[in-house]
Amino acid sequence: RSSAKLVAPLGCLVSRQKHTLPDLPYDYAALEPHINAEIMQLHHSKHHATYVNNLNVAEEKYKEALAKGDVTTQVSLQPALKFNGGGHINHTIFWTNLSPNGGGEPKGELMEAIKRDFGSFANFKEKLTAVSVGVQGSGWGWLGYNKEQGRLQIAACANQDPLQGTTGLIPLLGIDVWEHAYYLQYKNVRPDYLKAIWNVINWENVSSRYAACKK
Prior knowledge:
Elements: H1 2-15, H2 37-68, H3 71-76, H4 78-97, H5 108-118, H6 121-133, E1 139-146, E2 151-158, H7 163-167, E3 170-176, H8 183-186, H9 190-197, H10 203-214
Antiparallel strand pairs: 1-2, 1-3
Helix pairs in contact: 2-4
């Protein structure tokens, strides 16, 4: 019975389609002045594209190792799968979390949940900003949903560690604090970047994610 359970996922890996770079739902310059066009172009067309390409290479090698029953190679590929897979997952969420029509505050159920779990929107904003500023080196600040507890939760992840795969929280809002996300415009002053990014947060997208994970 255990062998039968493995057939489907392995079959999916063998026959899978290659990952592709998603299109941005807006122009590179659309988030100016808060995030400039040069950053967006490099971030999307170079950095995210590299994660996608490297993920495809790692999965191809993993597929070959599976076919050979080469467990040593499968284990050695885990860091590349985690880093590049996480980079692809995280950035795919990030682009939709931003909008030229963003900013302000969320409404409806999400706002009520934020008030319930953090006391106020201002308190939530301050906490997520502080967690994001405090990430050592490179990583992400996240608002996630704890399905077991039925509440919102703030977390930080190092490097490109994906939120759900490493903490179990369902990602709602991710803030990229790798230097490539802000250095060309904000230099080493991460707090200025974090102050600016709240002006382009797409609360409709975050609210949709919240509604979907509660179903």
